[in-house]
Design goal:
Main location: membrane
Radius of gyration: 25 Å
Strand order of the largest sheet: 4-3-1-2-11
Helix content: 40-55%
Shape: globular
Number of helices: 18
Strand content: 5-15%
Protein name: Exopolysaccharide biosynthesis polyprenyl glycosylphosphotransferase
Structural class: alpha/beta
Largest sheet: 5 strands, parallel
Mean pLDDT: 86
Subcellular location: Membrane
Number of domains: 3
Order of helices and strands: HHHHHEHEHEHEHEEHEEHHEHEHHHHEH
Membrane topology: Multi-pass membrane protein
InterPro entries: Bact_transf, EPS_sugar_tfrase
């Protein structure tokens, strides 16, 4: 509890300094433009706008991932600061022009952005290294079945600053207790047997270990459940997996507004891309394909063509690989920044899709994945989307099972503000290469440990890979 309190106080201190530096940056920008003049007609509205600017900053910094930064790289932290300061400057400019009717010179907002970015970047870099140093590299144990090795690979590739994977163990191993004693942090896979998982969690909590659990679908469904009782018997009532009429109405309004704005803003990009696609092979500019949306309804999705003509003539329906030869040079550039998805704004305008929601899947893949992944069928409870949880928190290489869990989490945690945050995060990841491209072959834990010379105890039985877990 003491450590949690210190962490919360530390987060509040970081936020307080953020706000101080932000206000200083914009005051300096004001004086750069107006000198030392504090004429009440100009200065007072400027001061009155500060609380709104602070609230916008808090919303933007949490949306762009600046509330908890240790799991990010330093480059991503600076990138998030850039996006936060830039978006805030643009919003401040729009507010001054159209809401408070005070047309401040644009130089104030440009200077405010530059100064805020510099000050916040220096401060956040210092905070980042202090937090990393305080946390240190903790020894990590991963317990599970056939998925334990894959989780270990993810931990090594994405969390090596914070955790040193020391052991990967089958939950049925005789040595699990020994591994637990030797490590500070434990990840539990979702393929551990129900009773054994409960016993392990009880043991780990009593030993005061840090525990992270990969959730099963029923555990996600318990999120935001309501407490009730029958006489003296406690119950929890699960929320139905659907949006209310009011939520669907607000979501549709957001879709209409953003799709119209997006089509206007991106029309030059589409025109330029269309010219290059046509010039490359004289083929069609657009590509349509049947996909599924809410209620398993079939519709035709529209994209800028990024692959060769008749790309699936010989292969049949297949996912795009990272270095897929079927992708054209212009297509590769479009896919890298997701610009090939822009025409789907027409699908949003028509009501077939939403801006935010699970990505639409082809019927053949949907049926295949639904047979093997229990969560997958829930993806069509809401409209398919241009972007979603799986896109901003996962990557193109995330497994269908993990993507389904992200989509289920989105439905369970839906709110209007959460959609806005996902849209802002989508702007962030458009220029992050690991979030797009195609399916990459992941190394197994044995291969990765050998390549990197890691001293990892790997205690995974062959049964973990060949047998179904209970």
């Amino acid at each position: 509890m003491g450590k949690r309190v210190r962490t919360d106080l530390g987060d509040l201190l970081i936020l307080t300094v953020d706000i101080m530096l932000l206000v200083i940056a914009y005051i300096l920008s004001y004086f750069l433009v107006y000198g030392t003049s504090t004429n009440s007609l100009v200065w007072n509205p400027f001061v009155e706008s500060v609380p709104v600017m602070v609230l916008l900053y808090i919303f933007l910094m949490t949306s762009y991932g600046l509330w908890k930064t240790m799991r990010l790289s330093l480059g991503e932290v600076i990138y998030s600061v850039f996006l936060t300061a830039g978006t805030l400057s643009a919003l401040n400019f729009l507010i001054s022009r159209f809401i408070i009717d005070r047309a401040y010179p644009k130089y104030i907002f440009m200077a405010g952005f530059v100064l805020a970015f510099i000050l916040l970047s220096i401060w956040r870099t210092l905070v980042y290294w202090l937090q990393i140093a305080e946390h240190g590299r903790k020894n990590l144990l991963i317990i599970g079945g056939k998925d334990a090795g894959r989780i270990a690979v993810k931990a090594i590739e994405g969390m090596s600053r914070l955790y040193q994977v020391r052991a990967v163990a089958d939950w049925r191993s005789r040595n699990v207790s020994k591994y637990i004693e030797e490590n500070e942090v434990v990840f539990l896979s979702d393929d551990i047997g129900g009773e054994e998982k409960s016993r392990l969690i009880d043991m780990l909590m009593s030993m005061k270990k840090s525990v992270y659990v990969v959730p099963k679908s029923y555990e996600i469904n318990i999120l935001k459940a309501h407490f009730e009782r029958v006489s003296d018997k406690p119950l929890i009532k699960l929320r139905r997996l659907e949006l209310t009429i009011e939520q669907r109405f607000l979501k549709r309004i957001l879709d209409l507004v953003l799709s119209v704005i997006g089509l206007i803003l991106f029309s030059p990009v589409v025109a330029a891309a269309a010219w290059k696609i046509k010039a490359y092979d004289k083929g069609s500019v657009f590509y349509t394909q049947e996909r599924l949306t809410r209620g398993n309804k079939v519709f035709r999705i529209c994209k800028l063509r990024s692959m060769v003509i008749d790309a699936e003539k010989e292969t049949g329906p297949s996912l795009v690989n990272f270095e897929d030869e079927r992708v054209t040079p212009i297509g590769r550039r479009l896919r890298a920044n997701r610009l090939d998805e822009i025409p789907q704004l027409f699908n949003v305008l028509k009501g077939e899709m939403s801006i935010v929601g699970p990505r639409p899947e082809r019927q053949s893949f949907f049926e295949e994945f639904s047979r093997n992944i229990p969560d997958y069928k829930y993806r069509t409870v809401v409209k398919a989307g241009l972007t979603g949880y799986a896109q901003v928190y996962g990557s193109y290489t995330s497994s269908p099972e993990d993507k389904a869990k992200y989509d289920l989490l989105y439905i369970k945690e839906y709110s209007f503000l959460r959609d806005i945050k996902i849209i802002l995060l989508t702007m962030k990841i458009m220029f992050m290469k690991d979030k797009a491209g195609g399916v990459r072959k992941e190394p197994d834990i044995y291969e990765l440990a050998r390549e990197r010379g890691l001293d990892i105890t790997i205690d995974i039985s062959e049964a973990a890979f060949s047998q179904d877990m209970p």
